[in-house]
């Protein structure tokens, strides 16, 4: 297959940012970024300028997900081109500022790579979130990280869904990478989650350094979980939740869910079963921040993507 033989030449990744506090109550990213703002030795690499940055300082101060609106949905073309002014929601103003520093989104001036650090209350372990199946630089980075952290594992969630995709803070970079580690409650630090996040980032930065030094990365395949569908909690006519995630599904992120498997449990103990047509892999199961987004979990499908060989130009 030609895709296995072609070498894709890519620009070096000289400008890298690490975002923490996009959600102000996700403490691993907030804490790591604050640490690195004080002393950046750990994130320095030869030939790379790495900028640690707190994206939503007001939300961090309140230890809340956001102040007016979710910053990680705010980087839409409409918001970014809206006239600047104090009458805009805080996060929209902030998105414009951040786009000015690390973007502009979609332009040659944009940062090369942005890592955005998140925590989830779901039992997802280490998850890297990508927005494109065609970004060979990011796919190679995923392969490098997976190999480097073995026998620990990290999974790749691909959100390329035309309707479920959202306008993230990291989306202003040429190569956006979300890092989602859990389970960790909102406002809480857990040492195992904190350290897992730190290790992933170390390997990611090592990859960028090697790439910039001219190393060639041969073609490989990367297993990803592609976002398929958002599943809401069962609700009554008033919109109130009438069931919880079923105990058989709770904490079983990334495990196969088959048609007929228990999915929700009503308050009077009835089981609601999955009605899909085939096996899916649920994730973000019972994420605290997603109650407001009408989402109990997302379903995904396992796929193997081919990453072309890459080398710097
Ligand atoms: C729990 C959480 O905040 N998750 C992130 C996922 C992402 O960064 O794509 C979000 O919804 O923005
Ligand atoms: Zn988050």
From TrEMBL:
Main localization category: cytoplasm
The enzyme's E.C. designation: 3.5.1.15
GO annotations of cellular component type: cytosol; nucleus
Cofactor note: Binds 1 zinc ion per subunit.
Cofactor: Zn(2+)
One Pfam family from the record: AstE_AspA_cat
Binding positions for substrate per the UniProt entry: 72-73, 166-170
Residues that, per the record, bind N-acetyl-L-aspartate: 65, 180, 290
GO molecular function: aspartoacylase activity; hydrolase activity, acting on ester bonds; metal ion binding
InterPro entries cross-referenced by the UniProt entry: AspA/AstE_fam, Aspartoacylase, AstE_AspA_cat, Aste_AspA_hybrid_dom
NCBIfam families according to UniProt: PRK02259.1
HAMAP family xref list: Aspartoacylase
Family, per entry: Belongs to the AspA/AstE family. Aspartoacylase subfamily.
Protein name, per record: Aspartoacylase
Organism, scientific name: Notothenia coriiceps
Gene for this chain: aspa
């Amino acid at each position: 297959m030609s895709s296995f033989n072609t070498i894709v030449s890519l620009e070096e990744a000289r400008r890298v940012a690490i975002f923490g506090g996009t959600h102000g109550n996700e403490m691993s990213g907030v804490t790591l970024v604050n640490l690195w703002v004080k002393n950046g030795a750990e994130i320095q690499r030869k030939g790379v300028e790495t900028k640690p940055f707190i994206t939503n300082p007001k939300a961090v101060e309140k230890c809340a997900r956001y102040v007016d609106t979710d910053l990680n949905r705010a980087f839409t073309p409409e918001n970014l081109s809206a006239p600047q002014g104090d009458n805009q929601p805080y996060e929209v103003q902030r998105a414009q500022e951040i786009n000015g520093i690390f973007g502009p989104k979609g332009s040659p001036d944009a940062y090369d790579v942005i890592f955005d650090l998140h925590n989830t209350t779901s039992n997802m372990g280490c998850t890297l979130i990508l927005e494109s199946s065609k970004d060979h630089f990011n796919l190679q980075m995923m392969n490098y990280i997976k190999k480097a952290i073995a026998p620990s594992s990290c999974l790749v969630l691909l959100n390329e869904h035309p309707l479920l995709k959202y306008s993230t803070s990291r989306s202003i970079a040429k190569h956006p990478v979300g890092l989602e580690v859990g389970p960790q409650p909102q406002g809480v630090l857990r040492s195992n989650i904190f350290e897992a996040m730190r290790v992933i980032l170390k390997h990611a930065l090592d990859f960028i350094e090697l790439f910039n030094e001219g190393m060639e990365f041969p073609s490989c395949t990367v297993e990803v979980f592609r976002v398929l569908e958002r599943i809401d909690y069962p609700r009554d006519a008033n919109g109130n939740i009438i069931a919880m995630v079923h105990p058989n599904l709770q904490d079983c992120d990334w495990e196969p869910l088959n048609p007929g498997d228990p999915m929700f449990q009503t308050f009077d103990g009835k089981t609601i079963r999955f009605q899909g047509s085939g096996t899916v892999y649920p994730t973000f199961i019972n994420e605290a921040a997603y109650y407001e987004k009408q989402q109990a979990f997302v379903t995904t499908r396992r796929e193997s993507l081919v990453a072309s060989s890459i080398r710097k130009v």
